[in-house]
Structures are given as structure tokens and as C-alpha cells.
TrEMBL record:
<feature type="transmembrane region" description="Helical">
    <location>
        <begin position="109"/>
        <end position="127"/>
    </location>
</feature>
<keyword id="KW-1133">Transmembrane helix</keyword>
<protein>
    <submittedName>
        <fullName>Uncharacterized protein</fullName>
    </submittedName>
</protein>
<feature type="transmembrane region" description="Helical">
    <location>
        <begin position="78"/>
        <end position="97"/>
    </location>
</feature>
<keyword id="KW-0472">Membrane</keyword>
<keyword id="KW-0812">Transmembrane</keyword>
<feature type="transmembrane region" description="Helical">
    <location>
        <begin position="44"/>
        <end position="66"/>
    </location>
</feature>
Length: 128
């Protein structure tokens, strides 16, 4: 069993849980109750839940790779794609944290570290 894939899966599942609980309460619910168009609310809700599904599926892929259910040849491109997505999400979260001067969002301040850790561990598991 590959340890780095297992750690990446645990972090992916943990980020999905935080996204579904904290993110929903802090970001999605206020937007859904705001005075924007119904179509814009639907698009934001779809984007929120599609990111949640991506996090769950990436955790399942990491578990499958850790248990060596998927051959290395087949998992190489898939894991690199997932790592790229988490890396881009980490860059975006870092940008949002640096441009937002709010001090009450403690989870958002360190979410980019989790994204970079998932990307780094998944790439490290491929190349080690």
C-alpha cells in the first residue's frame, strides 16, 4: 500500500468534508439567499457541488492507486490531472487569501496548503 497516495486520499476526503460543511455554510447559503438571478444561483450551486464531487472522486482514485487496484501505467495520467487540478485550486486559494484582507476566515487562510500538499503527495507517489 502506497503511503503517499493514502495520505493524499485522506486529505482529499478531509477537504471534501470541510468544503461540504464549512464552505456551504460560509459561502453557498449566503449566495443562495442573496438577490441575484436564479440562473446565476443555479450555476454557483452546480459549481460548488461539482467541486465537492471532484474531491470525493479524487480521494477514491487515490485509494485505488494506494491499494494498487489500478496499474501504474493507467493511473499516471489520471493522477497528474488530479494533481494539476489541486495545484491550480491551491494557486487560486492563495491568490484569494492574499487579495482578501479579512481576518475572520481562518480555514481559507490555510486551504491552499492542503491543496498543494495533495498535489505534491500525489506527484511524489508517482515519481518515487
Amino acid at each position: 500500500m502506497e503511503v503517499l497516495f493514502t495520505l493524499a486520499a485522506v486529505l482529499a476526503f478531509a477537504s471534501a468534508v470541510v468544503h461540504a460543511t464549512y464552505g456551504r455554510a460560509q459561502y453557498l447559503v449566503p449566495v443562495l439567499h442573496s438577490q441575484i438571478e436564479i440562473q446565476s444561483r443555479s450555476v454557483l450551486q452546480f459549481t460548488f457541488y461539482s467541486l465537492f464531487v471532484f474531491m470525493l472522486l479524487s480521494g477514491l482514485v487515490f485509494i485505488a492507486c494506494a491499494c494498487e487496484v489500478v496499474a501504474t501505467m493507467h493511473s499516471y495520467g489520471l493522477v497528474l490531472f488530479i494533481a494539476m487540478n489541486y495545484g491550480l485550486l491551491g494557486i487560486w486559494q492563495l491568490f484569494l487569501w492574499r487579495t482578501n484582507q479579512s481576518t475572520h476566515n481562518y480555514i481559507g487562510q490555510y486551504y491552499w496548503v492542503i491543496c498543494f500538499a495533495i498535489a505534491g503527495m500525489s506527484c511524489g507517489a508517482l515519481f518515487v
